[in-house]
């Protein structure tokens, strides 16, 4: 990834086109308290920009808090799966060239996507479109964990060993909670939030199918590696409809323009 504004514009690589439907169906939603906190600390609640919206998870949860939400993504396949909402306007646009007006945005959110951007160009774009005092909030969630170690072990093996070699290099930034990415804004202290859900086995398997690494493995080998993961988990899970707790480390950085 180039971080220099002097280089040619980065060519967009759509890591999720092949798994867009699974992404829309199985990616977790974010804590309601996180979105409410961001809205409370934004300078106004007129217009929010959810950048790299994917299939709209964060945009939909912002909608109750803002008069309008503009949700952009560079992937047509992702935008096509996003649910319609009267308060959300979806647009096809890269993070670094949003097409939004100068000083028009109260809050920018980037959920699980900052590691894909040309950071220098995106940060310049964020400064251009944010109102004075506007907020930029970025967050990522890392490797899922199941508190039951017997269930967790096959999932960790699948993540690190089976599809691990197929993760793009940028994935390391998610795994370390964005600690190594520059964030040149006046940072705001934030509460700690936890991303925790209770999922059935089919929901967990669907989530694993939504990973870009799983899509790459499938393209390389011609078969779905989640089938083998399912065979390992099924005798350990109990009834497939039984819900088990899933937890993700949630790393949030918020800065003011």
What would you note in describing this structure?
- The model is unreliable at 1-12 (pLDDT under 50).
- Helix 1 (20-26) packs antiparallel against helix 8, helix 6 (149-162) packs antiparallel against helix 10 and helix 8 packs antiparallel against helix 10.
- It contains ten helices and nine strands.
- The chain has 257 residues and is an alpha/beta fold.
- It has a seven-stranded mixed sheet.
- It has a domain at 17-143 and 168-195 and 249-256: 3-Layer(aba) Sandwich (Rossmann fold).
Q: What is this structure, in a nutshell?
A:
This protein is α/β, with parallel strands linked by helices and 257 residues long.
**If you average the pLDDT, what whole number results?**
91
Uncertain runs are 1-12
The biggest beta sheet reads:
7 strands, mixed
Order of helices and strands: HHEHEHEEHEHHEEHHHEE
- Tell me the Rg in angstroms: 18 Å
Under the CATH scheme, the architecture of one domain is: 3-Layer(aba) Sandwich
Distance between the termini: 24 Å
Task: Output the CATH topology of one domain.
Answer: Rossmann fold
Query: How many strand segments?
Result: 9
User: CATH H level of one domain: which superfamily?
Assistant: Vaccinia Virus protein VP39
Q: Total helix count?
A: 10
Fraction of helical residues: 25-40%
Question: What is the general shape?
Answer: globular
| Relative strand content | 15-25%
Secondary-structure-based class equals alpha/beta
Give the CATH level 1 class of one domain. Answer: Alpha Beta
Task: Order the strands across the largest sheet as they lie in space.
Answer: 3-2-1-4-5-9-6
């Amino acid at each position: 990834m180039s971080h220099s504004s002097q280089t040619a514009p980065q060519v967009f690589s759509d890591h999720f086109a092949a798994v867009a439907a699974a992404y829309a169906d199985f990616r977790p939603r974010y804590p309601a308290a996180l979105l409410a906190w961001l809205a409370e600390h934004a300078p106004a609640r007129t217009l929010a920009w959810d950048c790299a919206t994917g299939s709209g998870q964060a945009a939909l949860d912002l909608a109750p808090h803002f008069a309008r939400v503009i949700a952009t993504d560079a992937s047509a396949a992702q935008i096509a799966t996003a649910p319609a909402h009267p308060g959300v306007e979806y647009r096809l646009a890269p993070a670094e060239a949003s097409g939004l007006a100068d000083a028009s945005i109260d809050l920018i959110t980037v959920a699980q996507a900052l590691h894909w951007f040309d950071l220098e160009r995106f940060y310049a774009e964020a400064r251009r479109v944010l109102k004075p005092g506007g907020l930029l909030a970025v967050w990522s969630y890392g490797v899922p964990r199941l508190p039951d170690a017997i269930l967790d072990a096959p999932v960790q093996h699948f993540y690190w060993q089976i599809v691990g070699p197929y993760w793009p290099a940028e994935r390391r930034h998610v795994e370390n909670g964005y600690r190594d990415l520059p964030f040149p804004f006046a940072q705001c202290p934030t509460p700690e939030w936890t991303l925790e859900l209770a999922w059935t086995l089919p929901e967990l398997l669907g989530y694993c199918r939504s990973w870009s690494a799983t899509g790459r493995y499938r393209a390389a080998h011609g078969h779905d590696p989640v089938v083998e993961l399912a065979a390992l988990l099924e005798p350990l899970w109990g009834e497939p409809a039984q819900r088990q707790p899933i937890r993700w480390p949630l790393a949030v950085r918020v800065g003011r323009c």
